[in-house]
Design brief:
- The protein is built from nine helices and 16 strands.
- By secondary structure, it is an alpha/beta fold.
- The model has no long low-confidence stretch (mean pLDDT 97).
- Strands 1, 4, 5, 6, 7, 8, 13, 14, 15 and 16 form a ten-stranded mixed β-sheet that branches. The protein has a two-stranded antiparallel ribbon with strand order 2-3. The protein has a two-stranded antiparallel sheet with strand order 9-12.
- Helix 7 (230-252) packs parallel to helix 8.
- The N and C termini lie far apart (39 Å).
Length: 348
């Protein structure tokens, strides 16, 4: 699916980070110091944030949204849409977005939707907000994206525990004057490459799904935990993402050298660097932003924006962002972010 939606503005972006920091080198006694150093070198991740046991992804996103609303001085009654993007929702039902409408004190006329996506989810959230605005149904939509990814991972799975972190974000999308180009693709044949096998209605959790097993690399997990076929995901990303972005640039009529920032989902430094090479763009325009946060799922792009884009480093008149992962799903957005307000990450 490729389209251009006119008169959309990404007004502001903020991220909320848990205070708890896990320094990955402290795991040397558990996994072996040489193994830990090898993983850090490969992924670029040195530390991650971990939410308190009682904090959910919606709690983090709520804090981000409250900060954004206060800083923007926006009247809550003017917010008429809320999209919650997360794989770690509060309940199987009801939708967490409905709960957030009440907790944030938004109007009962607010349209709400959960999007149960991971690393590509921010793209889907912005797309949904843009569609609502383009239809005339909404004028200001909050896109809240975040995960408590660390709770999906078995502590004995070093391959994932040393990559994923927790974060919540808030983005305000409004009626504007800029076009937003969108290109989204899906391949459900790869659904089992990144999956929590048990816990849904196809395979309910049971004593059998809770049995700890180890793979050939000595990563331990149960069927209730997140599983990732790392090589398959890497192959998918480096073969699909650059093509998706190139097709979006063609749709927009943009040359690569006119783009001031290519913001890629921050899976790990190895993957970002390889996609950058496939794109044939300058590395300084494709930042690697994983060392302090790791892979925060649907939050990586807004976290990158809030942490880096308020510093005047990039020309934001033409920005391309891309998310890719679970599903398999991948997509990109091209837009003007010169007028976007970027608030540095907060944790209060």
């Amino acid at each position: 699916m490729k389209t251009i939606i006119d008169n959309i503005s990404i007004q502001s972006v903020v991220s909320w980070l848990p205070e708890n920091v896990l320094e990955l080198r402290t795991l040397g006694k558990l996994y072996g110091e040489a193994e830990v150093e090898s993983i850090i070198k490969a992924t670029g991740v040195e530390r991650v944030r971990i939410a308190d046991s009682g904090m959910t992804s919606s709690d983090m996103c709520q804090k981000a949204a409250e900060y954004l609303i206060k800083q923007d001085a926006i009247d809550k009654s003017q917010i008429d849409g809320l999209v919650f993007v997360s794989q770690t929702t509060d309940y199987i039902l009801p939708a967490t977005s409905i709960c957030l409408q009440d907790r944030l004190g938004l109007s009962q006329d607010t349209v709400c939707m959960d999007i149960h996506y991971g690393c590509s989810g921010y793209i889907y959230g912005l797309f949904q907000a843009a569609c609502w605005i383009h239809s005339g149904m909404c004028t200001n939509v909050l896109v809240l994206a975040g995960d408590t990814s660390t709770r999906m991972i078995n502590p004995m799975d070093k391959s994932l525990r040393m990559v994923f972190g927790d974060c919540g974000t808030a983005t305000l999308v409004s009626v504007g004057s800029s076009p937003m180009g969108i290109h989204i693709q899906s391949d459900g044949s790869g659904f089992d490459r990144l999956i929590i096998p048990a816990g849904g209605f196809r395979m309910p959790s049971s004593p059998l799904t809770a049995v700890l097993e180890y793979d050939e690399d000595k990563n331990g997990r149960t069927q209730n935990d997140l599983y990732m076929d790392g090589m398959a995901i890497f192959s998918f990303a480096i073969n699909k993402v650059h093509k998706n972005i190139n097709q979006l640039l063609e749709l927009m009529g943009w040359k690569k050298d006119s783009v001031g920032l290519f913001a890629l989902h921050q899976a790990n430094s190895f993957m970002v660097s390889h996609i950058c090479k496939k794109l044939k763009v300058r590395p300084e325009l494709t930042p690697v932003h994983v060392s302090n946060y790791g892979n925060t799922g649907p939050a990586t792009l807004p976290l990158l924006f809030s942490d880096l884009c308020g510093k005047g480093i990039y020309d934001l008149s033409r920005v391309v962002m891309s998310g890719f992962g679970v599903g398999l799903s991948w997509g990109s957005i091209a837009t003007d972010m010169r007028s976007t307000r970027f608030y540095e990450p907060v944790n209060t």
